[in-house]
Structure formats: structure tokens, C-alpha cells
């Protein structure tokens, strides 16, 4: 990772994070974060999957109660900003009615990413149900991340704690599932799906028992992560690059980038229209969504008109867009930690950023919120779009 600080400080000093003093402060739906632009809530979706109609209705709640946008996070979650303090009880009730708050006790413990493959998505939902069924797992830190991948190892470049990997691309009923433990170990033998989920839940409980204190948020923070299980072997993972706008990861699926990771009302309306009956949206950690068309519209020939609907709404569905390279934290005037209007500066720079090159993430301070995994250039506290363009060349 490269870092450029336009205030003249050393990058390593700029990016130093404060020492942990207790449990993580990740927000949830019931535990808002007091941002400069109002309260912020985070909704965790198992595997990133969401019904397009529910997504569009959630946008309606955001417009009614806060800022008219839904913010995608680097962990496949959604944030609603600009909310009043205290949160209106009606807002929480309506989120719950949409099925987006299935557990008030475990809402922050449901950090699960999954590839858009239907089998992996179903497995992610099984993990979510198993977590909610275990009272002790309500204590999982908000930063604890579980990934459900497929034989390609997609998503396994993210900073996960535990993972399941479906090893058989044929997806038979007896499909073997590998159980993975960060940072790079696997349980020796693959297991049937139900047993793999049970093994995963057992590892979560073991993590909670063995962590020294609540400052230990992740498996990698343990003195010996490999001690979580008695029979681990090296995982030897080779994850592919992130999905790109225009990719078709599966039949009837299309990847669309969301500029600046901000879903607008026209975006959710377009996703609902394009999805058709039975369609599904999967959020990725790369400020993009995967649209899965419904059964009647799910053929590859139907992807092209769906892509036109999304493009007309401002989502990016083709190659060569700078939004495949650019991302930013929320910055000013939303965050109290900076005066840099990172979103506005990045949007202004986008028209002059070359199509090809490495990832560039723009942040207002050394916390570097939302920075991507893998190689990228970090632009810290810019004051002019030229500084972003320069680093993107």
C-alpha cells in the first residue's frame, strides 16, 4: 500500500491507529454512531444478500428519517446517515418489518460476506441462523467477519476471521465445505454443509472463550490463532481479483459499481425494476452490487436490457470506468475527524482519472476508514481534486 499525506506528515505516522481501550465501537441498527451529520446506523445483511424491494423501501426510510442515500461499506453492509438522536422508534420497527433486523440481541454479531453464487448465499443464511440461535455469540465483536466462498476463493483476500469454502463447483447435496481459520489455516478435512456450519459456530465460541479481553476483536489478534482447532493445515489460498463492473459471475448475474459507494433513490428504483420477480441483490466489499435477475428474466439474453436500466440510473456496468478504481471515506461535512470534503473532491477528480491503473482510496484522516484490501494508493486529507488525479496516474 502507498500513502500520500498532503499535509506533509509521514505516512506511517499518519496511519497509526489509536491503541484499543475496550470493545469495538462498530455501530449497529440499535447502537447508532454520533457522526457530524447526525446519527448513523449500520445494517448487517447475511452474505450481503437483500431483496430489491426491501432495499428500495429502506431507501424510502432513509429519505423520510435521514439522508437520502444508503452507504455501502467495505464489509458488504449498509449504513443510513443523518438520522435524529434518539432514533425514532418507528424507524427501527420499520427496519424490523422489512426483515433487515431479525435479531435485536445478535444484530452486531452478523458480519457475514458471501460470493453471489446461490449455494454460497444459502450457506451464509444458514450461518446467520446458527449464530442467532447461540445466545453466547451475541458477544462477537462487530468487527468479526465470516466469509462464505466458492472453489474460486473469491472474497478470501479480505480480512476475515473464519470462512467456509464450497469446494465442489457442481454443488451436490453432499458438497464438501472447507472450514478456514485466519490467517491462512484450514480444518484438515472438508465437511458436509451442516457439519461445516456447526464447526464454524464452535470456533466462534472457542474464540470468545480464549480471547484475553474485549480488546481482542479478531482471530488474528490471538497470541496463537492456529490453537483454535486441534487439526489445522495450511490453507494455500489464491484469491482472484475483485469483481469488476460488467462482470457476470453467474447465469443471469451482473456486477454494477456504485459511484462513491452511495446508493441513491434512482439506483434502488432501477435495481428493483431490472431484477424482475424473484430477483436478488448482493452487496460486495468493493462498492458494487451483483444483480441477480429473477427466474423469468434470468437468462443471459436478459442481462443486456437490465444493464441499460442500471446505466441510465447512474450505476456503472461497463469496463473502463474510473469508478472501478476510485473510492473514498465519507469525509466532511459528514465526519467530525476531518475538514476534507473527500466525496466531493473524488467526484470532481473522477472525470480526469485514467481508466486503467491501481486502486485509489481517498480519506480525510489517518484512520483511513473503508480502505480496500490489497494494493492501493491512499490519498490522505486532500484539499484539491488535482491531488487525487496526480496519485491516480
Strands, count: 19
Overall average residue pLDDT: 91
Which range best describes the helical content: under 10%, 10-25%, 25-40%, 40-55%, 55-70% or over 70%? 10-25%
Please give the order of strands in the largest beta sheet: 7-8-9-10-11-12
Low-confidence stretches: 4-14
What form results from the Cα inertia axes? globular
- Share of residues in strands: 15-25%
Alpha-beta classification: alpha/beta
SSE topology string: EHEEEHEEHEHEEEEHEEEHEEHEHEEH
Q: How far is it from the N-terminal to the C-terminal residue, by CA?
A: 15 Å
Q: Could you describe the largest sheet, including whether it forms a barrel?
A: 6 strands, mixed
Number of helices: 9
Q: C-alpha Rg, in Å?
A: 20 Å
How is this structure best summarized?
With 393 residues, the protein is α/β, with parallel strands linked by helices. It has helices at residues 11-14, 52-65, 89-97, 118-132, 193-210, 265-275, 303-312, 342-350, 385-392, and strands at 2-5, 33-35, 38-43, 49-50, 70-72, 78-83, 112-114, 146-149, 162-166, 177-181, 185-187, 232-234, 253-257, 262-263, 280-283, 288-292, 326-328, 359-363, 376-380. Helix 2 (52-65) runs antiparallel to helix 6, helix 4 crosses helix 5 (193-210) and helix 8 (342-350) packs across helix 9 (385-392).
Give structural notes.
With 393 residues, the protein is an alpha/beta fold. It is built from 9 helices and 19 strands. It has helices spanning 11-14, 52-65, 89-97, 118-132, 193-210, 265-275, 303-312, 342-350, 385-392; strands at residues 2-5, 33-35, 38-43, 49-50, 70-72, 78-83, 112-114, 146-149, 162-166, 177-181, 185-187, 232-234, 253-257, 262-263, 280-283, 288-292, 326-328, 359-363, 376-380. The strands form 4 sheets. Strands 7-8-9-10-11-12 form a 6-stranded mixed beta sheet, covered by helices on one side. Strands 2-3-6-5-14 form a 5-stranded antiparallel beta sheet. A hairpin with a 4-residue loop joins strand 15 and strand 16 (288-292). Helix 2 (52-65) runs antiparallel to helix 6, helix 6 (265-275) runs antiparallel to helix 7 (303-312) and helix 8 crosses helix 9 (385-392). The longest helix has 18 residues, at 193-210. It is globular and about 55 Å long. The model is unreliable at 4-14 (pLDDT under 50).
Amino acid at each position: 500500500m502507498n500513502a500520500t499525506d498532503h499535509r506533509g506528515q509521514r505516512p506511517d505516522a499518519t496511519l497509526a491507529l489509536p491503541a484499543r481501550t475496550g470493545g469495538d465501537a462498530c455501530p449497529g441498527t440499535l447502537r447508532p454512531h454520533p457522526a457530524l451529520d447526525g446519527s448513523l446506523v449500520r445494517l448487517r445483511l447475511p452474505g450481503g444478500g437483500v431483496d430489491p424491494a426491501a432495499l428500495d423501501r429502506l431507501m424510502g426510510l432513509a429519505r423520510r428519517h435521514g439522508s437520502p442515500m444508503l452507504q455501502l461499506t467495505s464489509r458488504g453492509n449498509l449504513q443510513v446517515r443523518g438520522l435524529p438522536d434518539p432514533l425514532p422508534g418507528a424507524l427501527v420497527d420499520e427496519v424490523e418489518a422489512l426483515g433487515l433486523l431479525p435479531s435485536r440481541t445478535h444484530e452486531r454479531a452478523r458480519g457475514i460476506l458471501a460470493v453471489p453464487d446461490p449455494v454460497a448465499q444459502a450457506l451464509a443464511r444458514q450461518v446467520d441462523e446458527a449464530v442467532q440461535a447461540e445466545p453466547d455469540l451475541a458477544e462477537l465483536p462487530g468487527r468479526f467477519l465470516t466469509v462464505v466462498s466458492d472453489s474460486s476463493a473469491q472474497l478470501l483476500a479480505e480480512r476475515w476471521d473464519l470462512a467456509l469454502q464450497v469446494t465442489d463447483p457442481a454443488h451436490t447435496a453432499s458438497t464438501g465445505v472447507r472450514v478456514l481459520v485466519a490467517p491462512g489455516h484450514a480444518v484438515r478435512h472438508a465437511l458436509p454443509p451442516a457439519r461445516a456450519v456447526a464447526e464454524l459456530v464452535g470456533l466462534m465460541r472457542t474464540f470468545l472463550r480464549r480471547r484475553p479481553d474485549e480488546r481482542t476483536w479478531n482471530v488474528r489478534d490471538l497470541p496463537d490463532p492456529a490453537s483454535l482447532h486441534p487439526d489445522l493445515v495450511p490453507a494455500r489460498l489464491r484469491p482472484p481479483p475483485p469483481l469488476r463492473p460488467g462482470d457476470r459471475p453467474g447465469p443471469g448475474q451482473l456486477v454494477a459499481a456504485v459511484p462513491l459507494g452511495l446508493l441513491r433513490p434512482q439506483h434502488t428504483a432501477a435495481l428493483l425494476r431490472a431484477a424482475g420477480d424473484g430477483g436478488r441483490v448482493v452487496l460486495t466489499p468493493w462498492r458494487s452490487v451483483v444483480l441477480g435477475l429473477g427466474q423469468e428474466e434470468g437468462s443471459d439474453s436478459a442481462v443486456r436490457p437490465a444493464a441499460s436500466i442500471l446505466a441510465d440510473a447512474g450505476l456503472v456496468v461497463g469496463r473502463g470506468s474510473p469508478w472501478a478504481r476510485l473510492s473514498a471515506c465519507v469525509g466532511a461535512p459528514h465526519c467530525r475527524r476531518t475538514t476534507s470534503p473527500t466525496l466531493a473532491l473524488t467526484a470532481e477528480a473522477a472525470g480526469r482519472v485514467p481508466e486503467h491503473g491501481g486502486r485509489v482510496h481517498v480519506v480525510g484522516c489517518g484512520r483511513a476508514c473503508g480502505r480496500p484490501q490489497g494494493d492501493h494508493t491512499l490519498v490522505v486529507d486532500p484539499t484539491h481534486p488535482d491531488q487525487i488525479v496526480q496519485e491516480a496516474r
